[in-house]
């Protein structure tokens, strides 16, 4: 009973060992993550086209919910860059950015993706996320990073940006190039340069003056806080809003109220596809961060429990006034390095955000949007990884093609189409490859019991017996191809008496392939050739044994290829002969 | 040059050997097929909701075009039952059955599916048809047969039928049950019983009175002709049209005029999905009939050339006033058994239909629709194969599930959704299986160089070295699963020093899986375990050799699992030990 309970509420596991020391560690981590999260929450709300407070609300209830249900001790949940970009893209066609309808749709999007994640967790469908291949995810994140940077250029220049792909963004910027606000540009450009320099040089400098590696790293990651404080003070002191600098403006003080998101079925069904994509991408990113961090401490996370936890966290966002959330990479790393021991750190971070929302919104009103834009650009610059393209292409053209297509389509058409086509290409290429399975005629390596490809190795073969190794599971998409391959082989060998299919690489034979095997057996029989099988695996044999094919097969099913060779070739030794020695390929 | 020409026009191959004997054989076959095709062409036009002449037109130009480009000597092209049902379903939402717009849309559908098939042939995409698995096709054909029978019941009863699934059909029949026309029912029911009796008893009876097996078979298949003649004569003699019996009515005499189908882009784009489905289903059926018949005479057909031939035949239907065509099963068998030697038989059949259209339309006006409905029901009764469901389910639950879903959805929702969901389920289940690959810890069979599953065989194992055989290609969908499997194995074995991945069943390692292997190597290294590979296949090794993973792997890559065992286990003989003999599974 306790075990079942613990599976649903992982808190049961760690709470019994909780003590003062753990609490101090968690509290320290929470303070540092809070400092990092306040500007990020505002910035990602800006990126998603939402009022600033939505980002803060997304950093409260979801964090508490995740602390209760999550299996990772260190995953820092909240608004993240890629999900915010996808939110902006999903809501763009529904309402005017920033309007009450737009905010309502954002809550629907959070609740909907929460319900999707929760359902996937309950149905144990976590494996679906595996269909987002590494190259597609990596290409998608790189392209998203570029789009995010592009979407923030307008804020740095003090003009109206907008657009959901590079073309729209470029057009938008070009049309307003005359309206650039120089004061905004000074602030945005200044913060950009400052944050870049901090990232490059602050940590080594701090290490040089004697700080520990970890402390130096954490301090340099708090640089955006100083930029926020300085530019906010400057905007207040010189009243820069009057000079045309766009500020965050009035943020309602106080905690979010709990209420259902709008229940208009039309909005829910319109947002469904986008919610599915946001759920999957958010889940894949969260799980990979959580697994990386867990492995470092030899802990494990449970992907299906994570689905439930992230799902509930997003439902929490939807009823608690927030936009979609997932596990953020940089914040999770900071949380880990700052010493977070349990999910309590996440709950305490939510407390920190709540205190900030109650006390600092008056000050945040003067924060220039250009500062937030610069924060975003520096934060996502680590997402962009061009070297992965070269690396992937050099290993596999198919993977490289899927990656390039994802990047190009995301950039020129937007996030949804980019990732969908990427997944489609990955799947399509995989299916195409398995639909034309590699197979090889093999021969015996003299002096061993091993068989290798006749065209790559110097091996013994026999005129009356041919051994065909099939290098793929047999299923509907390649069943006919096997028929063709066998018939072609046979038609070229008039003296053939036995054909052995070596099945060590055949992990499954489905009903279509079974029919093809029956057809092969029948056609070979008409040509007076006997079909044999060898090295059929246990699970495959279990099923074959029940079939008519197996009962009517005139040939044998050999345990090993060598046994087939000994029986079929050594039984007719007159015909066996050494293949002339040639240069093996 | 001639060779290239011959690839496009197979006629070059056989025309040089053509002689009087071949012509006599072809002519005889053409006469028999024409007798069979006239009522079928009218019946399938009725089934598709089209005027009778559209069926006749679909039996002229397309047959000539196929004779020029087809690679099968015996495939009888023309209107077929399943494609006609799919045509009715596709056009149902576009216009009133029988209206000029409806006929125009049918021509568009033919031309469109012709262009799709042609493009697939040119791009060598014939492999796409393989994704319609045997169980899905078989289930779809069975369900279509039931729907076709259901759609004809109204004609037998003399009432208005209609509907594209069983529910709609049932409702339509129920609402009009009071309007049953008794004379029609007598004709329809009489023909149904007559044709059934002919099918059951005529052939044995003819054999009994001394006819040859083949002649008896062909004669019994001409039974519908006698039913057509008798009921047409009866309708004319007693003027049954006045008694409420629905007749075929005025069929325009003369040949079809060549003209472009309507070029309204809205209709073309609306019909595109249906055209894709009709193309694929028609192609799969045609190719499987053609291959079966070709194999009997040790001939071969070229699937990509067939795509081009069927594509052009359908374009011919579209510009020649006909509905979509494909290779019909029963007519092709008759053509084959009647002795057709070359595609000339098909061209002569077209000539026969042309003669019938020019001379007999006045008579056909009196043909009762109930006769045609009875012909259809008997013809499609061979399509319905319930035993396949049981057979498939007993072999594979996954295939059985795809088949059942296809049948149920086709029956209750219609043809398009049925086949789409069937294909989706087949693919989904295949991907699900490969995303959780089978793997087995293997041990050495004493006295051999062979390794088998430790849980199924009595084999030697070693505490410090574990050999994991991976039974699937490694790709994005199962990469993470492999990581989990390896880490779980390792965590249960504290004395482990070496982990060997036996890769004889790994036919591919994609970029995602490569990253997982890197992650596995890194994590094993942290636990002081060395990762080795064995039996990596040639093509896989070629690619791995270029990677950083291969350069940084601390373990070895062994040619065979036995070599790995000899090196790793026999080098530390103190630890090697015989596994206690247990009952193998």
From TrEMBL, chains A, B:
Membrane topology: Multi-pass membrane protein
Keyword presence, Membrane: yes
STAS domain ranges (all copies): 455-575
GO biological process: transmembrane transport
Keywords: Membrane, Transmembrane, Transmembrane helix
Bilayer-spanning residue ranges: 28-47, 54-82, 102-123, 135-157, 177-197, 218-238, 266-284, 305-325, 345-365, 372-389, 401-432
PROSITE patterns named among the record's database cross-references: STAS (PS50801)
Compartments, record wording: Membrane
GO CC annotations on file: membrane
UniProt-listed PANTHER family: SULFATE TRANSPORTER (PTHR11814)
Name the record gives this protein: Sulfate permease, SulP family
Species annotation: Marinobacter zhejiangensis
């Amino acid at each position: 009973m306790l075990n079942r309970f613990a599976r649903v509420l992982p808190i049961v596991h760690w709470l019994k060992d909780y003590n003062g020391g753990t609490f101090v560690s968690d509290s320290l981590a929470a303070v540092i993550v809070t400092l990092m999260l306040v500007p990020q929450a505002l910035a990602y709300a800006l990126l998603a086209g939402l009022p600033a407070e939505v980002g803060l609300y997304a950093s409260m209830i979801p964090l508490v919910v995740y602390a209760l249900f999550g299996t990772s001790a260190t995953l820092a949940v909240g608004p993240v860059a890629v999900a915010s970009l996808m939110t902006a893209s999903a809501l763009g066609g529904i309402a005017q950015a920033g309007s009450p309808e737009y905010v309502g749709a954002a809550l629907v999007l959070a609740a909907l993706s929460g319900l999707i994640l929760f359902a996937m967790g309950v149905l144990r469908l976590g494996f679906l996320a595996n269909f987002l291949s590494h190259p597609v995810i990596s290409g998608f994140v790189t392209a998203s990073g570029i789009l995010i940077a592009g979407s923030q250029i307008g804020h740095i220049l003090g003009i109206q940006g907008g657009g959901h792909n590079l073309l729209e963004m470029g057009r938008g910027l070009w049309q307003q190039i005359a309206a650039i606000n120089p004061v905004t540009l000074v602030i945005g450009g200044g913060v950009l340069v400052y944050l870049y320099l901090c990232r490059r040089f602050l940590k080594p400098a701090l290490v040089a003056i004697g700080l520990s590696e970890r402390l130096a790293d954490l301090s340099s990651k708090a640089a955006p806080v100083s930029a926020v404080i300085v530019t906010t003070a400057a905007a207040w002191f010189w009243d820069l809003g009057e000079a045309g600098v766009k500020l965050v403006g009035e943020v309602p003080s106080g905690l979010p109220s709990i209420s259902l998101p709008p229940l208009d079925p039309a909005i829910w069904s319109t947002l469904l596809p986008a919610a599915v994509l946001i759920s999957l991408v958010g889940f894949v990113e969260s799980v990979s961060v959580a697994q990386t961090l867990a492995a470092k401490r030899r802990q494990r996370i449970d992907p299906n429990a994570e689905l439930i936890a992230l799902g509930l966290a997003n439902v929490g966002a939807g009823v608690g006034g927030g936009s979609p959330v997932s596990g953020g990479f940089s914040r999770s790393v900071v949380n880990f390095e700052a010493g977070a021991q349990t999910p309590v750190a996440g709950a305490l971070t939510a407390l920190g955000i709540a205190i900030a929302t109650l006390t600092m919104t008056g000050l945040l009103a003067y924060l220039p949007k250009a500062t937030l834009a610069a924060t975003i650009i520096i934060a996502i610059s680590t997402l962009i990884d061009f070297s992965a393209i070269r690396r992937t292409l050099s290993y596999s053209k198919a993977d490289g093609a899927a990656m390039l297509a994802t990047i190009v389509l995301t950039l020129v058409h937007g996030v949804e189409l980019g990732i969908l086509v990427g997944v489609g290409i990955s799947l399509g290429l995989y299916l195409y490859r398995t639909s034309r399975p590699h197979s090889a005629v093999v021969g015996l390596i003299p002096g061993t019991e091993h068989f290798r490809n006749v065209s790559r190795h110097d091996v013994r073969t026999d005129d009356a017996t041919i051994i065909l190794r099939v290098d793929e599971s047999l299923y509907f998409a390649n069943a006919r191809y096997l028929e063709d391959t066998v018939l072609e082989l046979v038609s070229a060998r008039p003296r053939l008496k036995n054909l052995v299919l070596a099945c060590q690489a055949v992990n499954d034979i489905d009903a279509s392939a079974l029919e093809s095997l029956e057809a092969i057996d029948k056609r070979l029989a008409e040509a007076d050739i006997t079909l044999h099988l060898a090295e059929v695996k246990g699970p495959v044999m279990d099923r074959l044994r029940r079939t008519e094919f197996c009962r009517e097969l005139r040939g044998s099913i050999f345990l090993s290829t060598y046994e087939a060779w000994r029986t079929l070739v050594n039984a007719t030794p007159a015909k066996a002969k050494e293949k002339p020695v040639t240069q093996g390929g």
